[in-house]
Amino acid sequence: MADDPHALFEIWLAEARESEPNDPEAMALATADTAGRPSVRMVLMKGHDPGGFVFYTNLDSRKGVELAANPDAALLFHWKSLRRQVRIEGRAEAVSEAEADAYFASRSRDSQLGAWASDQSRPLDARTTFEARYEEVRARFDGGEVPRPPRWSGWRVVPERIEFWSDRPHRLHERRLFTRAPDGTWSEGLLYP
Fold first, then answer.
1. Structural domain boundaries of the chain?
2. Residue from 62, 140, 148, 171 carrying the catalytic annotation
3. Res 2: pLDDT
4. Which CATH code for domain 5-107+150-191?
5. pLDDT band at residue 3, thresholds of 50, 70 and 90?
6. Catalytic site residue 171?
């Protein structure tokens, strides 16, 4: 047994980076609206530490709106090549403006321009409409830096529970559950498969 799920996560992530063919940082993000209707989608983890797991998005996207109204969230990393998964449950909180600015500045220019051109999660009448908006934004920022859009930022899911699942023959899987106490310490136990 261990007492630091973040250290174990870092070990597993390093192994996934060696074996996964694509995006070992990809995670499923589950949110729910105020009526409790769930929604799940894949996002990319852009940072993690004992404070939580960070991703970025348009704050007016479906996930952004749902997290603003109901910050309870769940994450799932599934590393098929390792036959492992990590499940995380916690509450989402906004990253700081400085964190959002720093990450946005690290993105490729095309990704920065795309953030300005997209009304993420909103209906789109035709792909050509989006492409035209992208070209307009590209012309507007031609020759200059692309600032972070005001409605684009990040979320940090602060974990309350982290489960490490390992595949075993005959479906006799291993499940290790870390639960955080109110004082921030972690306890570990096992779950039946």
1. 5-107+150-191
2. 171
3. 60
4. 2.30.110.10
5. confident
6. yes
